[in-house]
Amino acid sequence: MAQQGPVTIKVDGGVAIILIASPPVNALGAAVRAGIKGCAEAAAADPAVRAIVLAAEGRTFIAGADITEFGKPPVPPSLPEVIAVLERLSKPVVAAIHGAALGGGLEVALGCHARVAAPSAKLGLPEVKLGILPGAGGTQRLPRLIGAAPAARIACDGTPISAKEAQSLGLVDELAEEVLPAAKALALRLADGALPVPARDRTNLGPREAFEEAASALLRKHAGNPSVEAIIDAVRTAFEKSFEEGLAVERAHFHRLRDDPRSKALRHVFFAERAAARIPGLPKGTQPRPVSRAAVIGAGTMGGGIAMSFANAGIPVTLIETSEENLRRGLERVAGNYATSVKRGSLTEEARNQRLGLIEGKVGLEAAAGADVVVEAVFEEMGLKKEIFGKLEAIAKPGAVLATNTSYLDVDEIAASTSRPGDVLGMHFFSPANVMKLLEVVRGAKTAPDALATAMELGRRLAKVPVVSGVCYGFIGNRMLSRRTAQAERLLLEGAQPKEVDQALTDFGFRMGPFAMADLAGLDIGWRIRKATGKTAPVADALCEAGRLGQKTGRGYYDYSGDARTGAADPEVAALIERVSADQGITRRAIPQAEILERLLYPMINEGARILEEGIAARAGDIDIVWLNGYGWPAWTGGPMFHADSIGLQTIAARLRDFAEQSGDTTLAPSPILQRLAEQEQTFASLDQKAAA
Ligand code: CAA
């Protein structure tokens, strides 16, 4: 056995096994690339070797290029060079794929003469998610092997496919539970015959029309995504030019996109999402508690959605209500949601029945007795929540995690209503709970470490992106949102119209602006909260008083009498806003769109800085993950705190000082931490790096 860094080679019965061992995911860093190349050359030179198998140790085959190397000076050999070495060998090379073959990992496998995969393996080109395109021949080899249309789909969607689908497309030659012996056997069989034609020389592009049709659909589906445009362009080259010319086109796109700020932002998102899973301050060895059964209290829209999330993850759940009537309505809503998915074709009848079978409806809190986790999802009312937690104390089994799905309320106060506050925490789902990815896990002052670890792990099992938040009004997301909401209203009073405000955000990349969103959610929600907390929002209040509660009344900030979904600007609203401005003694002015955007985003960033300073969020990256997964912040800008770093904190602090001065609103002045970082010419990311060190 010989070793080249993290790669070893062992010759056994005429087959050289090249084994990569670079935990955690065998990413193709410089040492791995050099190791594969060196071992491949050694195998080529060894007369005892008739065939070669490329495999990897640990939980997966190769997860792709090493993303941490992006943006650093390149270290040879490059990945295309390594793949070219494999491909030019005169002995057959078989890739043995378990776990995942992603990005550069799949490109390496495409440079082999054949591929054996475990039935559970996933294969894909996820580069679009990082704002790049496959940069080591993926856009040229995959189309020549399986057809240009399916190759373009795989690369543009970025979602890995199953080994079975890969086999049906001709990407995988054999499926086997034990990949290594199967790959060895195949390699020897291939050595007995003529060397298989490598992917680069295959001619399976398929009809040009089929590709162009797929390309138009993909460009429509991912409109404005530069990675998708580049992939289509590179794959199209395969019809028009040689393999080498195609590689050059792909490489040029790769370098351009990799150096684009969008890709830098998306790489930040990748690592921030993983960092968010790490809980700071958790004692070493803390283990999550086992969860095999759940209960959800309250079968409203939220409770029903949460119950669906459990069922979708295969966890049996009891949905609890106070009356048969409420329960029936709740269960009907859940069944209706599943029926819509079946009708749309996104869920099979069988899966629907299986999921419905996991949801059991019950009247009375006693039904929570068997659950390992209880999620309370009743009205946002402190008294009611405390009453429920007080009763749960005796009902829930010892060690059950007791979670409140509150959006704003003090989790510590709720925890104080039980004698087991260590079991209590917040699990703030976002609506619709069965769809939205974000889960804020709220850590109370007395939450036990293993209860927190349980909620975080459960979040991942529910296919959510869980982020830890400390206790404060609105937690991370809604606390920042309230700053934006206040400025949006203020902009109306100072001279803007709803459409201009909304457009500033949609042009930035949000799917919806705050007023279109308010119309969709219903204006009465905020109105009720303002009344309860003694707050006012003159324009929003006036609209509510005029009966304009949003889409449900056909009128809100917009008029929905024409198009019931998008709504149109309404002169009546313009007149109402002007009247309210005049009542407040405000002289209206035209506000440029750039200023509107700054007024909406910078106060939120300022609040994010306070959230960091108070330790409500552990990392700036956690705040980004909250906004990306719960509020539609455009991923290619990296999230609010990353975006702030890209603009420069000096600029943000200076603008906030201007806004505070102009308005007399001292809450707009830069927070101490923002002020300090700006003075030191530092970034929010520098705080995360310090925390991680
Ligand atoms: N480079 C560097 N580090 C990586 C990595 C990569 N490609 N993929 C994963 N990691 C790291 C993660 O950051 C994480 O590190 P920490 O433990 O320090 O947080 C660790 O590996 C484990 O990752 P996950 O937590 O994601 O583990 P998982 O088991 O849930 O998922 C996976 C495994 C499916 C492989 C997932 O990690 C993944 O999707 N990886 C990225 C795949 C990808 O995007 N590949 C394309 C890279 S770009 C490319 O290849 C360009 C090209 O054409 C040459």
Task: Give a verbal description of the structure.
The protein is 51% helix and 11% strand. It is of the alpha/beta class and 693 residues long. Strands 13-12-11-14-15-16-17-18 form an 8-stranded mixed sheet, with helices on both faces. A 7-stranded mixed sheet has the order 1-2-3-4-5-7-10, sandwiched between helices. The chain has 4 domains: 2-259, 2-enoyl-CoA Hydratase, Chain A, domain 1 (Alpha-Beta Complex), CATH 3.90.226.10; 294-473, NAD(P)-binding Rossmann-like Domain (Rossmann fold, 3-Layer(aba) Sandwich); 496-583, N-(1-d-carboxylethyl)-l-norvaline Dehydrogenase, domain 2 (Orthogonal Bundle), CATH 1.10.1040; 593-692, N-(1-d-carboxylethyl)-l-norvaline Dehydrogenase, domain 2 (Orthogonal Bundle). Helix 1 (30-45) links the parallel strand 3 and strand 4. It binds acetoacetyl-coenzyme A. Residues 24-25, 27, 60, 63-68, 79, 100, 102-104, 107, 126-127, 130, 134-136, 271, 274 line the site of acetoacetyl-coenzyme A.
| Gyration radius from CA atoms, angstroms | 28 Å
Shape type: globular
The number of helices is 29
Give me the CATH superfamily of the largest domain. 2-enoyl-CoA Hydratase, Chain A, domain 1
Could you tell me the strand content as a percent range? 5-15%
What structural class do you assign from the helix and strand content? alpha/beta
Low-confidence stretches: none
CATH topology assignment of the largest domain: 2-enoyl-CoA Hydratase, Chain A, domain 1
Q: Report the span from N to C terminus.
A: 38 Å
Instruction: Compute the number of structural domains.
Output: 4
Under the CATH scheme, which architecture of the largest domain would be assigned? Answer: Alpha-Beta Complex
| Helical fraction | 40-55%
Q: What top-tier CATH class of the largest domain fits best? A: Alpha Beta
Main pleated sheet: 8 strands, mixed
Bound molecules: acetoacetyl-coenzyme A
Mean pLDDT: 96
